[in-house]
Hints:
mainly alpha; rod-shaped
Amino acid sequence: MASIxxxxxxxxxGDPRSATFDERKRKRMLSNRESARRSRMKKQKQxxxxxxxxxxxxxxxxxxxxxxxxxxQAYMAIESGNNVLxxxxxxxxxxxxxxxxxxxxxxxxxxxxxDIPEIPDPMMNPLQFHRPIHPIxxxxxxxxxx
Length: 146
């Protein structure tokens, strides 16, 4: 079989259709290249924006972790102080009971009317806790880090 070969057209042979076709092809290629360049630039900007957002979020996260740790330490210090105050209140209540019993004995023996102070009932003050309250705490603030 004989194959038909066409002579290569350079666009300068005077055929107006060929020149117009080559010109459209060239414009389309330039347009495609420009579109691809814009697409690459847009993607690069998105990556840079996301990288910046990751950095900002990491900084915010580390600040939150530091804040949580500081508040946790402050809470533990306050809770420790509260435990000491509760123990002291119990000790002082016991001492007051003991002194009141001595005053009652003195009143009974001597016959003098002695003013015996009342011992406050911890059940009457609903805001006073009778046992230390232990918070439910996460094992670590680091568990929130990814």
